[in-house]
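Structure ticket #2291
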Amino acid sequence: MHQPDMAPNVGAAIRLAACLGIAVDLLEPFGFVYHPAKLRRIALDYLGHAAIRRHASFREFEAWRRTQGRRLVLLTTEAPCANTEAAYRADDVLMVGAEGSGVPREVHEAADLRVGIPMRPGLRSLNVVTAAAMVLGEALRQQR
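Resolution: structure written out below.
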């Protein structure tokens, strides 16, 4: 999650990750006060079941990602292909942007693959965790 604005979405992402056995990467700064007690409250009893990595910045995240040899897949409304047309790999990192602003241009340019979810004309976007769940579901279906 790139600079998430809403703590409840972070909690939902942690629950999703815990249930599906994947890690969550959180890129700072956040649009809310990040505190361990608040994190326990929003993630409920799922917190202990999820691997969570915090990155102080996109630059730090990029350094980690590149040393791991991971591909960055950005979920964006500016995607050239639909999420169901993409070929996912086991080493992919799926990224969603901030709820109100998405991601900056530098993140778009760093992405190895940009995917979107086809929607009805005139509607802007889905909730970031809903979108992440849809794309993650397709990626897992392809990999398992």
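Closing remark: DSSP finds five helices and six strands in the chain.
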